[in-house]
Amino acid sequence: MSIRFEGESTFRSTDYELLPFRFSPLDEGCYFLSTDYGEWTVLDKQQLHHLVRKEHVGDTALYFELKAKHFISSEVSESKINFLASKLKTKKSFIDFFSQLHIFVLTVRCNTSCIYCQASRKSCQSDPRRFDMSDEVLDKSIDLFLSMPSPMLTLEFQGGESTLTMPLIKRAVQRVKEKQKNKDIQFVICTNLCDLSEEDMDYLIANDFSISTSLDGPQLLHNTNRKYSQGGAYESLIKSLDKLKEKSAFDKVSALMTTTRTSLSQAKEIIDEYVQQGFRSIFIRELNPYGFAQKYFHKVGYSTEEFLRFYAQCLDYIIELNHQGIIFRESYAALILKKMMTPWATGFVDLQSPCGSGFGVTLYNYDGYIYPSDESRMMAETGDDYFRMGHILSDSREDIFFGNVMQKLASAGVNDSLMVCSDCAFAPYCGAEPVRRYQVTGSIYGHPGKDDFCVKNKSIIKLVIKKWLTANTATRKILETWGAQ
Amino acid sequence: MKPGDSLFLSAQALQCINHHHSLFGKIVVDPEQLSDDTILFVDEARAINLPDGIVPHGIILSQRVLHLKELLECNVCPVITVKEDCVFTAGDIVSISPKGRIQREFRVASQNNALLVTETCNNLCIMCPQPPKPEDKSTYVQAEAKIQRIISLIDERDIPLSLCITGGEPTMLREGLIRLVGGIAEKMPETLIHLLSNGRYLYYENYTARLAAAAKGNMLIGIPLFAHVSDIHDYVVQSKGAFEQTMAGLLNCYKYGIPVELRVVLNKATVPHLLALSQFIAKNLFFVKHVALMGMENMGFAKLNRAEVFIDPWDYRDVLSAAVRTLKLYDIDTRIFNLPLCIVNSDAHEFCAQSISDFKRIYYDACRECVKQEVCCGFFSSSTDKYYLTQHATPYLA
Lengths: 485, 398
Description:
The complex is a heterodimer of chains A (about 475) and B (about 400).
Chain A: E1 17-18, E2 22-27, E3 30-34, E4 40-44, H1 45-52, H2 60-68, E5 72-73, H3 78-91, E6 101-105, E7 109-110, E8 112-114, E9 122-123, H4 128-131, H5 135-146, E10 152-158, H6 166-179, E11 184-190, H7 198-206, E12 210-214, H8 219-225, E13 226-228, E14 231-232, H9 233-246, E15 253-258, H10 267-277, E16 281-282, E17 284-285, H11 291-295, H12 297-300, H13 304-323, E18 329-330, H14 331-341, H15 356-359, E19 361-364, E20 369-371, H16 374-381, E21 390-391, H17 397-401, H18 404-412, H19 434-441, H20 452-470, H21 473-484
Parallel strand pairs in A: 6-10, 6-19, 7-9, 10-11, 11-12, 12-15, 15-17, 16-18
Antiparallel strand pairs in A: 1-5, 2-3, 3-4, 8-13, 13-14, 19-20, 20-21
Helix pairs in contact in A: 5-6, 13-20, 14-21
Chain B: E1 10-12, E2 15-17, E3 23-28, E4 38-42, E5 58-62, H1 69-72, E6 79-82, E7 93-96, E8 101-106, E9 114-116, H2 138-153, E10 162-166, H3 175-187, E11 192-196, H4 205-215, E12 219-224, H5 230-237, H6 242-255, E13 260-266, H7 274-284, E14 290-295, H8 301-304, H9 306-309, H10 317-329, E15 334-337, E16 361-362, E17 379-380
Parallel strand pairs in B: 3-4, 4-5, 5-6, 9-10, 10-11, 11-12, 12-13, 13-14, 14-15
Antiparallel strand pairs in B: 1-8, 2-6, 3-7, 7-8, 16-17
Helix pairs in contact in B: 2-3, 3-4, 7-10
């Protein structure tokens, strides 16, 4: 047998082409590189210089890494392009079926009064005929909702306090069940859980509702932020949570926290409260600059820097808890990690490109107007109807979804085509948010690089990346489970 | 006592009488069921009368019944004698060369039936346990005809749960392979076709599409991937451009709904890149049905290139643990093949499979006192003192 085997060097290529990637400074002397299909790495300045000049990058392991992560390629063939295209398609699959989260604002009446209220509430004694959705609007809205192309839809009932209109919720659910054929529909109710009767609770459980509630932290903080007309908001909420636990329905509950100026000094206390109540995650959410919060900003607001400091404290404490064996995660960091670690798309509408507004979310207001998001609806409540897409009773489906507002959103809702964003290596983990940018800067394009949206998200993304890079083995394992599972 | 089916694959006849041409046919043990194209196997000492007018294709006599003179000297057909431990089962399909080499093409008693469709290959893996033969296109036609005959001879009651198609590289048959897969899927729609291929030819999308259609959804393709970059993979398979083709082939399998078992042979060339490969798989080949991390069989080229490919699995046990942990993190079903438990870290034991086929599995003397032998894959029978797998095998004592 005269077979000759060639050595490893025979098969080694040294010349390479660059595939599309972006780079941004991460820290002193080091750069973060990313691709559109979710791969990333960190290089020092010299390595980056070698790379962009297509020179020898240094050690073989790094060269192989850049190749395997598709930053470079020995040859760019059609099959490689097809492969990368399929990866990009996977990453962006959240846009496959257009809007999937459909929010129904059934009423703007509410039984609590929160210092940061984003919903321009009316008291619960206000006239339901003026401030609740009419049967006609509800029925037409459900019909439009069911006509959406996605095989999987979420129907979220919101307010005001949505449980003040249980008959409307029941009417909506019944209509969906009667009329829908092959869709997988998830119901969600947003409620403060202050005043939910046992009967209504059983109804929600029986219909497999996800329950989204608010918990800002320990008793005093929660009650300071949220005033309940019938007594302590915290006590009422805990009573409902306990009842849900009794009924083994606690796994259907998730809670949102809103950070106020008072929260900033209570990072541990807030997280401890979540752990104590049995939650497995928290979303450290900053105040929204809409509705009443803007008016009272001096009382409850804070700077982006202050929020970022608070966020970092929370993250550190949560990681510390995990080291102690308490399984708990921060949802925003988990989302970034998932974007960094997996080839999958993430369905989080506040941090997507193309933007969640309009393309991932449709909002049906109690008065029949349609908006691309909750924030744009609140803007309209305070006098600016810039993002109003149309009216359920007078506009056609085409008018609503192919109209002027959607055109605007499309023009500003893809960060690959926004200045600064298009060159930012953190863009694949970030999003575009024309509604928020319009609200804060007066332009749907905003000022990427210096507006709040950019500074906050870029800072948190960098923070998470650095956490990952500097993590010891045990911390790395914790972050890995957040990202991969 | 009569020994049970020893699951042997091939054997040499002791003696061939009247045997001048190749024989091929199905085994029967009950003379009542004899027909012209069957081969009678006799290993029980009782009088046997051949039914009137029926001349079997051949007779195989066990050494223990050589006193049955009327069969030994029957003169109507070839008579082959075999050792006592060569026990056939009715329904087996065998071929016997003019020189008395007996090959069991299909073994009724086994769950590891494999159809070897060619011995040629377009890769030349540095650790290949069964080195390929030079290409001779004329053999493809004969091979296809032979396999089709085997398929047609399998009894309805002996239809296996799975049937492996292996080589060489089965896609060397091109259209022939599609016809074979179609033939199996037609006759045995419940049988899982387990095709072992290097995936390079699956680069051709139209071919993969038609192969998928022929299999009617009941095929699993085992495809090897040795590294996360072409530089290493192409070296292992000794073929420039192979990585690129195999990757495209994997993607075509995904596109046409063929489940893939990704196979990584662990050796000195691949182990340094195993962790990077597992990350590469998680991010790029998440669609694979499972990943098999396979201990290397120290046979064929693995012996010839031992200096380049041999590494004691004991020395890569930590890397192996890290790799399975990564794959598990991404929820990719992973199994470790061909490595005895005692040389794998305990955190990876749950991934270890009893993967070594029945006809080539052995245990060492030391394994006799091991309490885990029953759940251990053992060793390849090809392992020898000189070409050992490991020097760290240690029995688990109760």
